[in-house]
Design brief:
CATH architecture of the largest domain: 2-Layer Sandwich
Shape: elongated
Strand content: 5-15%
Radius of gyration: 37 Å
Helix content: 55-70%
Structural class: alpha+beta
Number of helices: 6
Distance between the termini: 105 Å
CATH topology of the largest domain: Heat Shock Protein 90
């Protein structure tokens, strides 16, 4: 019978791996397993370190929030205390002009406290939906005006849907307070606060009333009133421009602040 070489090759190919090669393979597996275990240990240690750092960060953030809330609370209490003291002094003052100035100062401090309180309710936000924010403030202004003026006056807020930086809401709100107070003092009928976007970019915040228009030569810089001086200072602070003209809707005096 002839010898089949191909069959012999197949049989030889199926022979078991030599013992030394088996030892080398097992050793390499054990070495790789040991390396993987070492890598896993290092990863677990790194993860534990990261988790500890994250806990410390969260604790610091919480502590900062508590301190910020406490500082805000103290600020609001301080502003309210100052407003109350000024109001008491106003009622105790015999000089009519001095009493009026003290009362005005008390109202301005109280307004600042209200603005801060509303902004405090919007903590952790960078922008504010300004029209709803303005509407809520003007409702308070209206309540205060009604308690001091027997004439029926209303404040209407008309605005676009736009968000402004939270830091800009304070000076703009104080400007509105001064302009609304001025309109209530010198104007008639409904006071309208209008917030709108400008076609060329930026925004326009206007306050107008149904009373008579201002003289064409009216110069706000020449005004001796503290309210107008405050408005001009705040307008300069935010890099805005004050426009004074006749309102096309109610035909009364219109003060508008144009800002980016």
């Amino acid at each position: 019978m002839a010898f089949d070489q191909s069959l012999f090759a197949k049989v030889f190919a199926n022979q078991a791996v030599p013992h030394k090669e088996v030892q080398r393979t097992v050793a390499s597996y054990e070495r790789e397993l040991s390396e993987h275990r070492g890598t896993e240990i290092r990863l677990r240690e790194a993860l534990a370190t990261e988790e500890a750092l994250l806990r410390q960060k969260n604790e610091l953030i919480h502590a900062r929030e508590v301190l910020s809330s406490e500082a805000e609370h103290r600020l609001l209490n301080g502003l309210q205390t100052i407003a109350n003291l000024l109001s008491l002094q106003s009622r105790a003052e015999n000089n009519i002009d001095a009493s009026a100035h003290l009362s005005g100062a008390a109202n301005r401090v109280a307004t600042l406290a209200r603005v801060h309180r509303h902004l405090h309710s919007l903590d952790d936000v960078e922008t504010v939906a300004f029209t709803p924010f303005l509407d809520e403030l003007c409702r308070e202004y209206g309540t205060i005006l009604a308690s001091k003026d027997p004439r029926p006056r209303s404040i209407v807020v008309d605005g676009c849907d736009a968000r402004l930086p939270a830091a800009s809401a304070i000076p703009l709100s104080l400007i509105v307070n001064e302009l609304v107070t001025n309109a209530a003092k010198h104007g008639l009928g409904t006071i309208t606060v209008r917030f709108e976007s400008r076609p060329d970019g930026g925004h326009l915040l206007a306050v107008c009333n149904e009373g008579p228009a201002l003289p064409e030569d009216f110069d706000p810089a020449a005004s001796r009133g503290l309210g107008m001086q405050i408005v001009l200072a705040l307008v300069t602070q935010i890099g805005a421009k004050l426009q004074i003209d006749r309102c096309t809707h109610c035909q009364g005096a219109r003060f508008a602040v144009a800002f980016a």
